[in-house]
Structure formats: C-alpha cells, structure tokens
Amino acid sequence: MAGVSIPGGGGGGKKEVDLAIPLVPFIDMLAMMITFLMMTAVWTQIGKLQVSQSGGPSDSSSPPPEPTLQVNLTLSEQGYKLAAGADMIDIPRNPDGTFDAAKLVERLKAIKKDHPDQRAITVMAEDSIRYEHLVQAVDKCLEADLEDVTVSAAM
Amino acid sequence: MAQHGRHMENIIVKPGKRPGKRLAKSRVFGHKFAKGGKSTNIELNLTSMINVFVLLVIFLIQQFSADGDLLFMTEKIKMPEAANYEQLERAPVIQVSADDISIEGSRVAVVADIENEEYWNIPALEEQLRDQKKAYEMVRGSGEGFKGDINIQADKAVPFKIIKRVMYSANQAGYFNINFAVLAGGEGRPAEGGAEG
Asked: CB–CB of A139 and B86 under 8 A?
C-alpha cells in the first residue's frame, strides 16, 4: 500500500510519522468516473456541411458579395464538369467508376489561387447522382476554401 | 523408552502430501514441501491499476461531449463521410432513408410514392415544417432568433432526385440554412469549429 515516510523528526517524538494515503476512495472515484464516462461517451463524431439552395434569401448579417467569378460544378454520370467563367473543364470518372475528387480539388485550388476573393460555388447534380457523391463534391469545395456552396439541380 | 518414542515418531505422521526421503533432500524440489516458510498474504499492485484507471478517465473525458445526441442513428441510414465539417447544432432533423422520409422521427412520406411525382415539393413534409416553424415562433416570439436551420440526415445511397425535393420543401417552409449531417472521416482537414464535439 502507498505510504509516505518522513525521515528524521527527532528521536524523542512519540507520534507516528508514516502517512498512508487512502487509496480505496480514490479508486472508487475513478471507477465511478469510468462508468459515467463510458455511458455518456460519443463514439461516432457527427458534423455538418452547410449549403444553401439556389433561390433562397441571402444572410442579412453577412456583407453583400462582391462581383466575382461564376463557378459551377456539375455532377453527371460521366463525371465532374467544372465551369469557371468562360473556361470549362471535364473531369471524367476514374476507370473504377469513382469520381476523381483529387483532380477536382487540384482544379478548385487553382481557381482559388487565381481569384483569392472567390468564395462562392454552385454545385449542380443530375437526378441519378447518389447523395454521397454530392456530399463528397461539397466537401472538396470546402477543402479548396470555397465556403459559400449553393446546391442546385442540373438543368 | 527413548528408543520407543523415536520409533513412534516415525510411524505416526501428519496426514497430507509428503515427499519421499530422496525428494525431500533434493535442492530443486525439496523446498516445495517446506512448511511455514512463505507468507500466503499477497499485496495487490495498486500503482499500475491506478495508472490504467487514470489513462482510461483521460481518454474518456476527451471523448465526452456535452451536446448529447443530436441525431438518432438508425440501421436504415448510413451517413456519408466528410472531412471539412463544422460542429452540428440543434435544429429540426429530416431523415431520408431509401424507404421513407421522416421529420423528428415521425414518418411523413414514403419514397416509392413520391418518386414519380412531377412537382418538386413534398406537401406533407412542408406542412410539418411550417408547423414546427409556427411552434418555434409561438414559443420564442415571431421571427426573433429564427435562423431557418435544418439538418438533413440522409442515407448515402439516396438519389439527388429525392434530396432536391426535400431541400425545396424546406426552402418553401422557410428553412433556408440547410445542413447535411455527415460522419467525421475521409481525407483533408476539419473546417473551423469542427472536430470539437
């Protein structure tokens, strides 16, 4: 058991100088804390991706947006189609059928580098596109610091 | 008489295990039969146990979130992963699975029924959302503090055709700040305010 022995103290002292730290209540407290924390632990971390829908009102608290480049990202069965102003880039799907997200981020970062004030992007998707691919596209836009993401249906 | 006593000692022995004479003299096994040499009291090694407890408590405190469960996780909805997320806040939750659409746990539409409809909104969902907004305004005062936040918790396999109708219905009911609920994961960096909960 844990104890503290204080050396010295004179030979004539009658009091015991060995001090035992009471570990039992300490262990009890730790056991109770572990039980409580295990019950309330959050094992899955959940977050959100904030988007707006085309046609919705703009947030009155934020400053009015300055005229910037119109950036549109379209998700289709063929892959991504990125339009920045007059430029249009096709990013086809990978041979295994997945969207080429790495190339998309690369392109978006290049746009952000050329236009540092650019914050807005419109993500358009075809009806058949799965929700996970839409979320992946929005996630990649946020990764490239294009924070004002508007989601719209592809025409 | 003395000889007789020694003889009796050899005959009357205590019950129990006894080694043979040769084994009792053995250096290797002889001590196994020694009586009263070793104390049977064992002291628990508490220091290492307390170390483990303290580490467990620190780990669990890191995992602890005071926000509570904002979303109800079900088998039917497997959420997509994202890396650049923000912390989820309390708002009405629309759950979209492959079979049905629910708001705050109560089913409002069946996906198979609405899939082939031409118009964009989902009337039952819109009505429920309007009711929620009215209830919020009655409690908090009209328009005050209403930010129009809504959380969409959808299965990752749901087509955008359904999601756009859910979003449109939310928009029509006055919920303009749409949040896609995601699981933390994937590659990249968490956005500002994320990875806290």
From this structure: no
Per-residue pLDDT at B196: 39
Q: Smallest Cα–Cα separation from A83: which of A92, A94, A70, A65? A: A70
pLDDT reported for residue A73:
92
Q: Is B63 helix (H, G, I), strand (E, B) or coil?
A: helix
Secondary structure of chain B: what % helix, strand, coil (to 5)? 35, 15, 45
And the tokens for B41? 């009291």
Could you give the maximum distance between any two Cα atoms of chain B, in Å? 121
Contact A15, A6 (CB under 8 A): no
Determine the residue among B49, B58, B60 to mutate to test chain A binding: the one whose Cβ has the most chain A Cβ atoms within 10 Å. Answer: B60
Question: φ, ψ for residue B28 (rounded to 5)?
Answer: -80, -50
Q: 3-class SS at A4?
A: strand
pLDDT tens column, A91-108? 998 888 889 989 999 999
**Interface pTM (ipTM) of the complex?**
0.73
Tell whether the model's pLDDT for residue B66 goes beyond 90: no
Predicted confidence (pLDDT) per residue in A72-96, tens digit = 999 998 999 999 888 888 999 888 8
Interface contact flag, B184 A46, Cβ < 8 Å: yes
Residues of chain A in contact with residue B85, where contact means CB-CB under 8 angstroms, are: 47-49, 139
Nearest CA in chain A to B78: A132
| Alpha carbon distance B61, B185 (integer Å) | 21
**Strands annotated E in B32-170:** 81-82, 86-87, 93-96, 100-103, 106-110, 149-154
Cα-based distances in Å from B31 to B10, B39, B94, B110: 21, 14, 75, 80
B19: pLDDT strictly greater than 60: yes
Is this structure's pTM higher than 0.90? no
Rounded-to-integer distance, Cα B52 and Cα A23, Å = 14
Residue of A nearest to B115 (CA): A127
Chain Cα centroid distance, residue A105: 16
Residue A129 and residue A106: Cα distance in Å, rounded? 22
- Give me the pLDDT at residue A24, please: 86
